[in-house]
Amino acid sequence: MSVPQDISPMSGADAHRAHVQPPAREGIWAEIFRYRDNRVALALIVPSLLALILVQLYPILYTGWLILTNEKGVFIGLANLTRLTSDTIFRGALIFSLKMAIVVVPVSLLLGLGLALLIRSEYAGRKAIWISILIIPLMVSEIVAGTMWKIMYHPTLGLVNVPLTLLGLEPIIWLMKANTAFIALCIVEVWRISPLAFLLLYAGLNQVPRDIYEAAAVDGATRWRAFWDMTIPYIRPMFSIATILLFVWSTRTIGTIAATTAGGPGRATWNLSWYIYGMSFQRLKPHYASAAVIVMLLMTYIAGAIFVKYLWVERKQR
Amino acid sequence: MRKIYLVAIMALLMAVMLSACQAPPPPTAAEAEPEDVTISIITAQGPLADGLVALIPQFYEETGIKVAVTPFPWTTFFEKVISLARTRSGEFDIIFADDPWMPNIVDGGLAVNLEEAYGATRDPDVPDISYDVFSWPPPYGPIPQDFQTGEPSQLHALPIQGNVIMFYVRKDILDERGFAPPETWDDVLKIAEAVHCPDCDPPFYGYNVRGTAGSDALALLWSLGGGIFDDEFNVILDNEAGCAALTLYERLSKYLPPGGNTYGTTEMVAEVISGRAMMGIGWPGDAYAAFEDERDSDVAGKMHYMPLPAASPGAPHVSMMGHWGLVLNAHSKNKDAAWKYLEWMHYNQQHALDYAHAGGIPFRESVFNDPDLIETKPWFPAQFEALMVPPKWRPRSTQATGISLAILGPAFSAVGAGDMTGEEACQQSGAEIRMEMEGVTN
Amino acid sequence: MAHSMINTRLLLRFLRTFILWSPGALVALLWLFPLYWMLITSVKPDRLILTGIDLIPTEVTWDHYRTVVADTPVGRWFTNSIVTSVSVVAGSLVLGSLTGFALARMHFPGRTAIFWLLISSLMIPPEMGIVPLFIGVLRLDIQDSYLSLIVPPLASVFPVYLYRQFFLSFPRELEDAAAMDGCSRFGTFLRVALPLAKPATLAGAILIFTGNWNSFLWPLLVAFKSEWKTLPVGMAVYTRLDIQGTATQSGYGEAMAAVAIVALPTLIFFLVLQRYFIEGVTQVGIKG
Description:
Strand content of chain B: 5-15%
Structural class of chain C: mainly alpha
Order of helices and strands of chain B: HEHEHEHHHEEEEHHHHHEHEEHHHHHHH
Mean pLDDT of chain B: 86
Low-confidence stretches of chain C: 240-249, 284-288
CATH class of the largest domain in chain B: Alpha Beta
Oligomer: heterotrimer
CATH class of chain C: Mainly Alpha
Largest sheet of chain C: none
Distance between the termini of chain B: 60 Å
Helix content of chain C: over 70%
Largest sheet of chain B: 5 strands, mixed
Radius of gyration of chain C: 25 Å
């Protein structure tokens, strides 16, 4: 593996700042178009922005309009949102989503980080084989994963219970009770999304130049300190993006729930996505459902902001 | 690398251009020649679709009209129908629909009034209930506010599949233990208590159910004389009969296989065909054919099929129906050809017989009692008997499917898991349904 | 003396390797097991599937695969999936590399704002877009076409982020050298930056390909006619999730065969590109 010696932790863009001329006073657009660099940058960015506006912004605006009207198209102000506050089913789904994220995200991150460090270490021989095996769950869809696990959790024939019976324990009927169904779903989710954490963190680890370890060894730092002081800062952006993606994936899952518990027992495994989908396409209240969509969006943004604030430290700020 | 990049751009452009080329040609404005007409049907996959597909060549030969059947998976079919209504799409000329969806279909403006437009009539070979369920506004029972216009109740679809939920029980074990087939639900509990033996080797379970599906348990509600709404759409789920149904389920769930409340059709059927379950309720379409399949089933020929047990001795054996009918899409551009197909499938006895032979479920008395069919489908006579009781249909409201999936299903599932008593579940569900119906007029 | 020292060292090394690797091996086993289970279920006869546990099937049948292939236009669905996924990969990598390069290597007003705008759109729940986009597709009358299958998933922000991170760690000197050779900014991007970004490209390609291959809800909505379904949507006929009253007769055998048919192309795609992909995530930086 060739390791770059000349990599600079400083981003190229910072170095660039020196080249930027002081702005002229002719209004912002003239200023933007004055420099060839800006024109090129604009040309490079506009396609992405257009796609984003079309596919993401327009639906948000549309949802914003839906939320203010009822199913018959009559303007009702914020009534849809206030109704949500007393909707116990919605509250249950929201809590379930958060509970699941709180368990699944850290477990997947730790598992992913552990595996990434292991594979990256000098003990790992055939890295390619290990990586291939570890990311296989990424190749199957939610519904496929759910269907596979449903057979594994079968009350009498499920293989998940085989180790328990071998240890002399009572087999567990995983999907029957709320608590075990929650654990069962968390296991499916960790199985399904921790490979993403592994992959992102492994890629992040590979951006850490090896020579900083050599320098650290000269300084007599322990491995642990080297990891904590040098590796972690390097992978922080990747770590926070992984956290955000994992949070989004784990709160959004619908296929795994549909294929394993179908929301049961009772409504114990309803998450927000399940609630929104049912409200929109089965209970036929798309306007009311859009209020829940907005809450979900806010929830994700708040979580994302927290992750970014506490985890994301760009290297240039060092 | 640069080459790869350019190739990627080219590929993208090509794909966009290809897709533009392959976009469906704009529909022709005028009615085309009959030879050129293709009518498209949307349906759920499975035996329903198989029957339709089997008859296409014959229909083409006789009329020169081509038929394209598009099956959709079960879970997404309702959603697909809803989006057709929301978008007023004429993409499909015919919708092969489940009867509980009639409110959504009519309310969405998807159904042509077949009596008004084509003078559809009732065939004496078909049970009246099978026509009633596809008439709109509903001929009896609660009528949604939006449809209380005093218009006569007229056919908006023609039945093709006369499905009704039934009761199955192991005849050989009944005989062995000296029991008669259960007349009432009390008998069912008695038999279940007597035969239930979870610790035997192999284990044997007194009762069996698709615990995740609300609609199965819903049948208990009708058979005990309960209901979701009275004639004015007031919620009556939490009345005495309603709570009795959920309490009955609570008692029955003691005899389920471990985790039986998590079962779907596959697991439910597996318990029966491997000889581990005594009895239960089930849809003939998906379960009974598997029971009688000698290749995979240990219990072929050992089952007794009957209408649901009654609330008390002498009370009617009320079941729940789930008919499938052909709806002529109001936005279709081939209405006349589509009507020809409806006529051909529905009014011809021979075609109905062929449909049943191809795996479909009959809707005509003469087909239900066809000796050849009964040989392989022994439940047909009992199914006809159940139809003549008559069975109940699910409420004629656009919210009915949502209520079944989001309120009743979870309530039964929670009772089956032992998280709630039947009494608690019926009180809670009643309150939830009242909330769900707030402001609903269709 | 020297001999025993070597032995002890070897033993220690072996022990350390073992302790480090046993959790890894366990995880790998757990990871692969459901997949193995899927494959053997798909070749078991129906009556053996839910009636007993055996890790190695006592009887193998290809009937489930035969049924699935005979009953469905697998070829057409496969083509749809391939065309869609490949186009989405190509398109979103083009968009992502352009934007990622601008965000990482060029300084212009609003750069940070645009970056955070893009990052924040990673968090928008897909439930949000589905209904409005679907209505848009129907208004434009482009349902049942590659256009409706390909364009909406193109707006994926993940490759933008991937490329930006990659280009950030790209040495300034190379850029200067390119500029001295007379390359324009875009020329630098095309001739210098992009070829060096091969790792990011491959990693992005595989992740986007699999994500798109498995996407379900969107293609389900926009495909009305059977010939416009993608493989997972078509095969969903067999993965029976009976939320509603009735269901099909197909059992787990066919479900698992269908699932395997959907999963195998991505697995093969990955195994073929695996070498480059591993190189991609392993070797960030510049050779030569």
